[in-house]
């Protein structure tokens, strides 16, 4: 148990610009100038209303965070209390001044790991993580865990140029934030980023939270929003909802495949209409629509593997998530056939020349499958 009795500001240090302590012979306590919770350490940090400041205003570096957690850490703020009316009054403890230039390593609190197979744990039930920049204010790596509750606040941590909020980053698409007690502080909301939709919290409703989750959380990825929903067990939790139905569908497919075909819900929250797409219905290399008989002839025979179409300018090989290994089919005029439907694949060879990243004097859009004429 470590309780602060005054503000603690890192002092100037040549190797890391600033440091709370020297990490040479005392590597169990400090790392690159930050406070360090080693893999075998379990610490309770009481900010007690004071400021923990790394003081990196202009210069930063990889892992130049305020606190690095490789073990177990709990952060509280003993200055939390109530006002004269009996209402909750948030304390004044602050974690600030970090500047990490590597986005994997949080600028305020970096929750790393105990080992390659075991994660670290950080529980924050008090204090404010704010005024850090570069990497997100709090990052949670791979198998590690972030728990939140009480008066915790995470806001106004920003990118290196200060142009965008960057607060909590969950670095696994299935990672959930543990809610260990009732959340008491709703303004400002805590911004969260995670690559993937689905359940965001665990323990939210079970630990006394009755307000909608978007009272406390907001997605910093514009493609997602925070909503309340219930799990299969009937528990109230926060979920990340993608505003893009295709993103939600692809995520559900990916999770079901990952777990051997286990059912995974893809829930639609609005009507979903197919968009116009350049490859469907099929068009010739000059952009003319095929006849109905031609479209029937061009109907794909496989999914995810090579298939063939007969276009106006020669035979066409079409792949999805595959590799286009050889493209030598000419018609009598000597022009090359257009490629339709290339999706996440790779064009390996064109007229005997190996391509790099799908480009060889012509533009090739791997995402949409467009193959433009020379000079475009």
Can you characterise this structure?
This protein is mostly beta strands. 5% of the residues lie in helices and 32% in strands. The protein contains two helices and 37 strands. The strands form eleven sheets. Strands 5-6-9-15-19-22-24-27 form an eight-stranded mixed sheet, with no helix packed on it. A seven-stranded parallel sheet has the order 1-7-10-16-20-23-26, with no helix packed on it. The protein starts with a strand and ends in a 5-residue tail after the last strand. 35% of the residues are buried. The C terminus is likely disordered.
Which key phrases capture this entry?
disordered C terminus, 376 residues, mainly beta, globular, 2 helices
């Amino acid at each position: 148990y470590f309780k602060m009795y005054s503000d603690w500001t890192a002092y100037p240090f040549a190797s890391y610009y600033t440091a709370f302590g020297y990490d040479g012979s005392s590597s169990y306590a400090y790392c690159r100038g930050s406070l360090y919770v080693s893999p075998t350490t379990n610490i309770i940090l009481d900010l007690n209303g004071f400021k923990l400041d790394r003081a990196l205003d202009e210069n930063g570096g990889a892992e130049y965070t305020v606190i690095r957690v490789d073990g177990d850490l709990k952060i509280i703020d003993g200055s939390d209390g109530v006002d004269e009316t009996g209402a909750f009054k948030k304390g004044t403890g602050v974690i600030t001044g970090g500047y990490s230039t590597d986005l994997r390593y949080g600028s305020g609190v970096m929750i790393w790991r105990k080992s390659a197979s075991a994660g670290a744990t950080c529980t924050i039930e008090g204090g404010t993580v704010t005024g850090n920049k570069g990497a997100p204010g709090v990052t949670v790596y791979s198998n590690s865990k972030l728990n939140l509750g009480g008066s915790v606040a995470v806001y106004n941590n920003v990118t290196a140029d200060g142009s965008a909020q960057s607060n909590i980053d969950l670095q696994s698409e299935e990672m959930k934030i543990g809610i260990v007690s009732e959340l008491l502080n709703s303004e400002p909301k805590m911004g969260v980023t995670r690559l993937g939709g689905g359940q965001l919290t665990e323990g939210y409703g079970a630990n006394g939270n009755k307000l909608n989750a978007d009272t406390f959380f907001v997605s910093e990825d514009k493609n997602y929003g925070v909503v309340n929903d219930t799990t299969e067990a009937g528990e109230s939790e926060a979920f990340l909802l993608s505003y893009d139905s295709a993103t939600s569908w692809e995520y559900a497919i990916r999770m079901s495949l990952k777990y051997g075909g286990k059912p995974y819900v893809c829930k639609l929250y609005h009507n979903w209409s197919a968009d116009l797409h350049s490859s469907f219905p099929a068009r010739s290399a000059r952009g003319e629509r095929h006849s109905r008989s031609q479209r029937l002839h061009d109907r794909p025979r496989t999914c995810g593997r090579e298939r063939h179409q007969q276009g106006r300018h020669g035979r066409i090989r079409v792949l999805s998530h595959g590799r286009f290994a050889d493209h030598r089919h000419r018609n009598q005029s000597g022009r090359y056939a257009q490629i339709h439907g290339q999706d996440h694949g790779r064009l390996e060879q064109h007229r005997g020349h190996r391509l790099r990243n799908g480009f060889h004097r012509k533009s090739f859009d791997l995402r949409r499958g467009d193959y433009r004429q020379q000079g475009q």
